[in-house]
Write a structure and sequence with these properties.
The protein is 29% helix and 24% strand. By secondary structure, it is α+β, with helices and mostly antiparallel strands. The chain folds into two domains: 196 residues, Fructose-1,6-Bisphosphatase, Chain A, domain 1 (2-Layer Sandwich); 124 residues, D-Maltodextrin-Binding Protein, domain 2 (3-Layer(aba) Sandwich), CATH 3.40.190.80. A hairpin with a 4-residue loop joins strand 9 and strand 10. Bound molecules: 2,5-anhydro-1,6-di-O-phosphono-D-glucitol and manganese (II) ion (2 copies). The site of one manganese (II) ion has 4 residues, from strand 5. It is found in: Cytoplasm. Belongs to the FBPase class 1 family.
Amino acid sequence: MKERNKTLGEYIIEKQEEFKYSSGELSRIINAIRLAAKVVNYKVNKAGLVDIVGAAGEQNIQGEDQQKLDVYANEVFIQTLINREIVCGIASEENDDFITVHGKAGDDNNKYVVLMDPLDGSSNIDVNVSVGTIFSVYRRVTPVGTPVTLEDFLQPGDQQVAAGYVIYGTSTMLVYTTGHGVNGFTLNPAIGTFYLSHPNMQYSADGKIYSVNEGNYIHFPQGVKDYIKYCQMEEGDRPYTSRYIGSLVSDFHRNMIKGGVYIYPTSSKAPNGKLRLLYECNPMAFIAEQAGGKASDGYGRIMEIKPTELHQRVPFFCGSKNMVAKAEEFMAKYK
Ligand code: AHG
Ligand code: MN
Ligand code: MN
């Protein structure tokens, strides 16, 4: 009989000793995220049935309308992490400031901070298109025993100890890395268990998909315009195919499996791009690199950027490494 796939729970226990600081805390954080993902998944699946689609009537700090599910997912992830008393701080795309979390005895002895985009691609909910959750984990830099400060959150991406995403798609998956490759787990909704379905996920070095919101073409920098024309040119394995969902998690997931590049550049409308360095780009960059891909701001490695503010935005070029390198070549011509 074929051995059944490992469950995520079994996998976490088995891999615990691989973690850099093996106190079990990081395992417990992944476990908390696993639980919150199931709760949000349940709600996402019922989105058309209950009064949860549509705008919540508020805007987040970035002036975007918050969707009801944005607010719900944000609360579920934050509460699950707070209830388990395993992190010392949380920063979310949906909150103006970071949250300080105290330990069991009201202390500040926990070592990790979590940063997240609780619901990515939220404009897609109302039309039944896949959305996701993105998370990123760092070890605090300020001394254990003191409350967290902004400094603990403003670390370059190469300091991440774990990162991952949940994709609420035709099936729900949790994909994550702790710096030892990327593994994907698929939820069996009948029993509420994630099973290892995509071990050691890898980008192909080349790909044939490019993903960019071409409606903004006129506003893009010349290097991106030239790269798009290059993708569309008839030569060798080109033209490439264009695929764009408008949900970073979904676009990234497809490109990692099939080979491709995702670009959200600067534009004359969004001079720093749209995506957030801490909640979206760094975690995706960590996963991409762990899967043999590449992530860049058009000129250099995303994970080496020293953040200056929580909600900082950056241009993002991410995917199969030769495709990202090619896009960088075009960008360099106009630097
Ligand atoms: P969020 O729903 O967390 O605000 O993120 C939406 C992001 C990202 O998921 C997606 O790739 C991008 O916005 C789409 O932006 P455009 O509609 O400008 O293409
Ligand atoms: Mn997002
Ligand atoms: Mn979001």
